[in-house]
Design goal:
The chain is built from no helices and ten strands. It is mainly β and 158 residues long. The strands form three sheets. Strands 1-2-5-6-10 form a five-stranded antiparallel β-sheet, with no helix packed on it. Strands 4-3-8 form a three-stranded mixed β-sheet, with no helix packed on it. The chain is rod-shaped.
């Protein structure tokens, strides 16, 4: 469930003299964050199989942005042979936004309550009738965007 997605792409080639050319390109992507859940263990089905709140009603993850660029040089050796060198930079601005959080609210076997809200979580009970034990890592980040990366290439075109 990505509600909003914005994508912009560009590319161009700049011809130079004597069979030389430069290539440039780039992209910008922005996506709204996805929904999260509050999960518990189900007596029969196991861990993270019981939705404590209606599915997807937890806090949404933050927007994620990414800018990638590509630079290249190409030399046309003859009409059938060319050599090119490229460099691609992924995540130029080195955005490090959260992409996933720990959605396990409890490891206890629970009985979900129909129509529960966030305020009801503290009063939920286990299948045995005791109050549940909250996972101390619930809601904390477990994954981030990949950091800035470089890719270099050499291509022989024939």
């Amino acid at each position: 469930d990505t509600r909003h997605s914005v994508k912009v792409f560009m590319a161009g080639e700049i011809p130079l003299s004597n069979g030389h050319s430069l290539t440039v390109g780039g992209s910008m992507r922005a996506n709204s964050g996805g929904p999260t859940n509050a999960l518990g263990s189900h007596l029969i089905y196991g861990a993270d199989e019981a939705y404590l709140l209606p599915r997807g009603t937890g806090p949404r993850l933050p927007w994620q942005f990414r800018i990638d660029t590509n630079f290249g040089y190409r030399k046309q050796i003859n009409k059938d042979l060319a050599l090119s060198f490229t460099m691609t930079v992924f995540n130029v601005a080195n955005f490090q936004q959260v992409t996933a959080i720990d959605q396990t609210y409890t490891f206890d076997d629970v009985v979900p309550v129909d129509g529960a809200s966030v305020s009801d979580l503290a009063r939920l009970k286990t299948a045995d009738g005791a109050l549940i034990t909250k996972n101390p890592n619930y809601g904390k980040p477990i994954a981030f965007q990949q950091p800035r990366m470089f890719s270099f290439g050499v291509r022989l075109i024939f």
